[in-house]
Amino acid sequence: MNQLGFPILTALIAVPTFAAIACLFADAKAARWIALGVTLLDLALGILLWATYQVGGPQWQFVENVGLFGSFGWALGIDGIALMLIVLSVFLMPICILASWEAIEKRVPEYMAAFLLMEALMIGVFAAQDMFLFYIFFEAGLIPMYLIIGIWGGAERIYASYKFFLYTLLGSMLMLIAMLWMANFAHSTSIPVLMNTDFPPHVQTWLFLAFFASFAVKMPMWPVHTWLPDAHVQAPTAGSVILAGVLLKMGGYGFIRFSLPMFPDASAELFWLVMTLSGIGIVYTSLVALVQSDMKKLIAYSSVAHMAFVTFGLFAFNRQGLEGALMVMLGHGLVSGALFLCVGVVYDRLHTREIARYGGLSNNMPRYALLFLLFTMASVGLPGLSNFPGEFLAMMGTYQASSIAGFVAVTGIITGAAYMLYLYRRVAYGPLDKPDVAAMKDLSPRELVLLVPIALVVIWMGVYPESFMAPMRKDVGVVLARTDRAWKGGDAKVAMNAHPKPAHAEGAHE
Amino acid sequence: MTGSVTLAASVPELILSIGALVLLLVAAWRGDEASRGVSWAAAALFVAASVSLMGAPSHAGSAYGGLYRADAFAGFAKLLIYIASAVSVVLAPAWFSRSGVMRAEYPVLILLSATGMGIMASAGDLLTLYVGLELQSLAAYVLASFMRRDLRSAEAGLKYFVLGALASGILLYGISLLYGFTGTTQFSGLHAAVAGRGLSTGILFGLVFVLAGLAFKISAVPFHMWTPDVYEGAPTPVTAFFASAPKVAAMALMVRVTVEAMGPATDAWRQIIIFTSLASIVLGAVAAIGQTNIKRLLAYSSINNVGFALLGLAAGTPEGVSSVLIYMTVYIAMTLGSFLCIIRMRDLNGDPIEAIAALSGLSRTRPALAAALGMFMFSLAGIPPLFGFYPKLAVFSAATNAGLFWLAVAGAVGSVVGAYYYLKIVKTMYFDEPAAPLEKSDDKLVGGLIAVSAIAISPLGYLAIPMLSAATFVAAKALF
Fold first, then answer.
1. φ, ψ (nearest 5 deg) of residue B303
2. How, if at all, do strands A72-78 and A61-69 pair?
3. Stated pTM of the model
4. How many CA atoms, within 13 angstroms, populate the side-chain half-sphere of residue A237?
5. A151 close to A161: Cβ distance less than 8 angstroms
6. pLDDT at residue B96 in the model
7. Confidence of residue B198 (pLDDT cuts 50, 70, 90)
8. Between A68, A136, A147, which is nearest B385 by CB?
């Protein structure tokens, strides 16, 4: 069993699943309370999970394995990376439910059921230790998200929901075929076993590309990112929070769980591909974000740009890069979620996301302006807030791997500051000359309850990132141990804390 | 083999055929008011036949001098056939009596058709194959035009008959070629002839014609043209029947002919199977997009699904055959469930409706029905966590393990195209504004059957995988 004496991961998945079924039979009011209660219960379980996780203990903890399905099994277990992502998911869920408390008026029970199902599936993705179980959770998330966008979304919701579904499905199907090949080759579907399997290098390239098709779409990376702005803009606020906060992290998680440790040779070989796509992505989407007139679209493009930091860091093949990428994933999950909530707050009042319709909110909504500023600054990467450690480390790692890539990545910080500050200026500053905007009330207590916890964690993560990095450190080392032999070293030749190599030592090897 | 053992091997067929004749007499004597009783009696016969499968009919091996085979493969296929037929029988009386055309012949025809299907699944000889196929088909032609005063139904029956007769002709021609070039009609003899003397051009021609005839029966591209018209025209319970049991029987026959009779010529038939498989997947997916009638849409869906099942057959391995059986098992649950939902669709006057547009906003007017149909659609699209994902996984796995990597990739891409039109149904039910409300139905039987199929394809279905794979593996092994 595990250190707790009960299968906590199954409980984390089962509790929201059963609650989702219960919601379907409840009325609107009861469904809201069930959803809130259950997500808080899952949060409590998540905190318990974090508290009892042994940092530096065995690689896989809370392991469960029941051979329920014949060729594959109900195998769960987490390492530090999965732990942090699960904690992020369970932290954001109650906030999502509260954010939808008043904004969602029609078909509340189904809405809550879809969200609870989504929570169960997200946790399942991060906890699965069987490749096919992972795939099932990974894919199944499409159904509730399709319904959330399609039923409760904006005007273009149907187009957006199709695009989201079919884009993601196509990528995943290729991954499925690759998984079948791997299962046949390794005679195992267990992720820990596969992480230590050496696939033939020429096949690795194909397998890598098949997985890449799925994770790059999910991430999303340029040029397959176009579903994201559509989905974000059309999804209800809480849907955007989950999409940006957790679903995008599945792509990054996939890279670090599958692509890097299982196909190290192909990862090193296709380094140029990932770096090129990330570089284009960071520059292009930042520039696109700069000219958006829709708040949600702007933040959606900023998400794509931030995810490019993640892919930069992941494929830097060094500890700084990997840890930085993971920290960006966590930080961005919080900050982009909070920014979408901030958009939701004003959207609920004025029912438009047009940036030009706002202005001068710092006059009549000071509390809102303060929190919005905090999250804007965090998104920009201000030291002391959540995104700084991650972005800094990721850039440092990228520079070691490739100085050109490092240069491109840094431009993302500059343009990022430009579009975020420009957004903030247009929304919060300037004259308060529009009567309907002037009539908007400041944050309600409910909205404060949504935003303040995120703000506190954002500061925590900026001031003392070690709490978040410590559980992941050992597992990053595991990944590095797999990739190191394939990686030939970057061009930057950084000599950190190390004595410069004597010149003749290099010659001796030749 | 002694006569009694031989008879014991074919007990299910005996039960069904004798039962059908007795019920035919009852129907003739008592007239149409007996139809409900006859239906339940027919269902009981299916149960009896299924129970009898546990004995000799699944283990006895070769019978009737090699004409008939009673092995685990036949047993598994028959079980599926009987379950699907029984469902088609019991749901019919309520539906037909609403239209005032329930006749006692309906269950009898289903019984006879199922007898033919059983013989198909057990065929050990090309002539047994043909007899079984014709018995099944003749009953099916009548069933298609069962509502004889309805123009569409009569048209469907006629179309089915004319094209079916053509296919039978092609099949017979192929059989005659095979006989002429090998000197035998027995599967074992064909196997030996091909293994011994190699694949001559004549045998290859015969094989192509036989496969063409069988492709018609499973409605695989390019012999699929009859399917949408017949599915649309035939009364809905009959369509549900056509989409389920005969598909299993014809697929079982296809497997038998390819693997058992033509095993040594795998490379020859594999190309044909790969072509029909991919063509079915693509055409079934693309042609379904523009449909406005849900029965036509499901017809294309069945073409699409048959393509996936053939993907498993293309592997030509025990794993492949097992994946075909898994696919057909889950397909039966999904397709019967979908048709059961359609049977529920009636407007407030009680007239059956088939337009997809009538499903608009169903999730608000009839949430349970919409949820069930939505589950079937996602499952048919192969989206996990619904059970429809597993058979796709099984066939892709079989194809990949047999080295047909690119075939699996092509099939996977095709399934994405197919997902679009299933999503369209879900979109209509969940995203659109409600259309005219449907009639509330209090038919407990149909409701219960929908619930059972929905549970079968829900994630709970995954718990059945160990049992299912063990049974299908034993069945597949019987052919190798």
1. -60, -45
2. antiparallel
3. 0.91
4. 27
5. no
6. 85
7. confident
8. A136
pLDDT of residue B310: 94
Max intra-chain CA distance, chain A: 78
In chain B, what residues touch A180 (CB-CB under 8 Å)? 393, 396-397, 400-401, 408
Written as six digits, the tokens of B150 are 């309805």
**CA nearest neighbour of B231 among B282, B285, B303, B166:** B303
Do the chains contact at B383 and A180, CB–CB below 8 Å? no
The least confident of A360-374, A495-509, B233-247, B336-350 is A495-509
Chain B contact set for A155 (CB, 8 A): none
Q: What residue has token string 């379907």?
A: A24
Q: How far apart are CA A241 and CA A99, in angstroms?
A: 10
Whether residue A165 contacts residue A179, with contact meaning beta carbons closer than 8 Å, is answered with: no
Three-state secondary-structure class, residue A493: coil
Q: B123's torsion region: left (phi>0), alpha (psi -120 to 50) or beta?
A: beta
Average pLDDT, chain A: 87
- For residue A293, CA distances in Å to A288, A335, A356, A418 come to 10, 20, 7, 15
Helix (H, G, I), strand (E, B), or coil: what is residue A350? helix
Q: Which of A83, A112, A107, A81 is nearest to A96 (CA)?
A: A112
Residue A493: pLDDT band with limits 50, 70, 90: low
Determine the distance from the C-alpha atom of residue B44 to the mean position of all C-alpha atoms in its chain, rounded to a whole number.
21
Q: Measure the CA–CA gap between A260 and A234, rounded to whole angstroms.
A: 33
Do the Cβ atoms of A116 and A17 come closer than 8 Å?
yes
- Alpha-carbon distance of A407 to A401, in angstroms, equals 11
Contact B404, B315 (CB under 8 A): yes
From chain B, the residues in CB contact with A132 under 8 A are 393
Joined tokens for residue A255: 């890279």
Q: Which stretches of A8-154 are assigned E, i.e. beta strand?
A: 61-69, 72-78
Q: Rounded to whole angstroms, how far apart are CA atoms B144 and A266?
A: 57
Task: Give the phi and the psi of residue A59 in degrees, each rounded to 5.
Answer: -60, -45
Classify residue B440 as exposed, middle or buried by CB count within 10 Å of its CB (0-12, 13-18, 19+).
Answer: exposed
> Amino acid identity of A137?
F
Tens-place pLDDT, residues B263-296: 888 888 999 999 999 999 999 999 988 899 999 9
User: For residue range B30-80, what is the model confidence (pLDDT) as tens digits?
Assistant: 887 888 889 999 999 999 999 998 877 777 788 888 899 888 999 999 999
8 Å CB contact of B462 and A184: no
The CA-CA-CA angle for residues B286, B291, B292, to 5°, reads: 160
Cross-strand pairs, B70: B61
Q: In this structure, what token pair is assigned to residue A205?
A: 């390239």
B412, closest residue in chain A (CA to CA): A173
Would the pLDDT of A327 be above 50?
A: yes
Pick from B404, B409, B415, B467 the residue to mutate for testing the A interface (most A CBs within 10 Å). Answer: B409
Q: How many whole angstroms separate alpha carbon B1 and alpha carbon B250?
A: 28
* ipTM confidence score: 0.90
* pLDDT at residue A108 is higher than 90: no
Distances (CA, A) of A202 to A177, A189, B21: 17, 21, 64
d(CA B338, CA B218): 19
Q: In whole angstroms, what is the distance from residue A94 CA to residue A33 CA?
A: 11
DSSP A67: E
Side-chain-side CA neighbours of residue B196 (13 Å) = 8
Q: Which amino acid is at B432?
A: D
pLDDT at residue B2, as a whole number: 62
Q: According to the model, what pLDDT value does residue A505 have?
A: 44
Residue A196 phi, psi dihedral angles, 5° rounding = -110, 15
- Number of C-beta neighbours around residue B459 at 10 A: 15
Q: Which two tokens stand for residue A458?
A: 């954002």
Question: Residue type at B257?
Answer: V
